[in-house]
Design brief:
The chain is α+β, with helices and mostly antiparallel strands. Among the domains are: about 80 residues, Nucleic acid-binding proteins (OB fold (Dihydrolipoamide Acetyltransferase, E2P), Beta Barrel), CATH 2.40.50; about 80 residues, de novo design (two linked rop proteins) (Up-down Bundle). Helices cover about 35% and strands about 25% of the residues. The protein has six helices and eight strands, in the order E-E-E-E-E-H-H-H-E-E-E-H-H-H.
Length: about 250
């Protein structure tokens, strides 16, 4: 049976050319989660959709179709587009790629939709980028059912203690370790999964002004996300690396 959806709040996550003048567009919608669509003729100069199908632009989208791939039947502008530049633009692209890679089609994620909107608004402002990204990553994992317990040992259930070291296993949690984490800054070898308790506590509270805690948070979330992203690298991460190299 064909379904018809009218004026659904949505954002463009990803788009690429299709056939001569059309676009394949992945939307993040408030009621239907990720929706894959065809926007017919959207690349033609006369298309009324062409200027609207931009990243970070709040939209009202109508679509219809019988299968997983829907056809766009209407697009209206919701509010003014979010304007991101430099590292903040790369951060927005990174968030979009995470959603595109990890969300299933047609699964509602209202809380995650709100977290996405909040992240974009924060990126447009002057909030610390690392905090914005870590907060969204934690929200994403939790919403998808892979939330990280930052409060207690996964085996003993004892509270995380600041002076102790813990080994992290994706989808399982933190376990007390007798090994040294060397301040939690190691990014290779056997210590990659080790974290100081004080850093775990800082991550829980998103108190990442300390550089060691910030690096530990980034390492932790990368471990947790990579367990579900698979071996294919995120293209958006290369943008950060290229930008950092250009600044050196």
């Amino acid at each position: 049976m064909e379904s018809r959806v009218h004026l659904q709040p949505a954002y463009v996550l990803h788009r690429h050319a299709f056939q001569n003048t059309s676009l394949l567009v992945d939307f993040f919608t408030i009621d239907y989660g990720r929706v894959r669509t065809v926007a017919k003729g959207a690349r033609s100069a006369k298309s009324k959709y062409r200027s609207l199908l931009q990243l970070f632009h709040p939209l009202l989208v109508s679509f219809s179709g019988k299968g997983d791939m829907k056809t766009v039947t209407g697009i209206e502008s919701g509010h003014a587009a979010i304007n991101l530049e430099g590292q903040r633009l790369f951060s927005g692209l990174y968030i979009n790629e995470l959603l595109t890679r990890l969300m299933l089609n047609h699964v509602e994620h209202k809380s995650l939709y709100k977290s996405y909107q909040d992240a974009l608004v924060s990126l447009q402002g002057d909030e610390n980028i690392e905090i914005v990204l870590r907060r969204f990553e934690l929200s994403l994992l939790s919403e998808l059912g892979y939330g990280i317990n930052l409060e207690s040992d996964c085996h003993s259930h004892e509270p995380i203690e600041s002076a102790k070291s813990y080994r992290f296993t994706p989808d399982i949690g933190f376990e007390l370790s007798q090994e040294s984490s060397h301040g939690g800054t190691s990014v290779g070898g056997s210590n990659t999964r080790l974290f100081l308790g004080e850093h775990i506590q800082a991550i829980q509270q998103l108190q990442l002004d300390d550089s060691d805690a910030s690096r530990a948070a980034k390492r932790l979330l990368r471990l947790a996300l990579n367990a579900h992203l698979g071996e294919k690298p995120l293209m958006s991460r290369s943008l950060f690396v290229s930008s950092e190299q250009a600044q050196e």
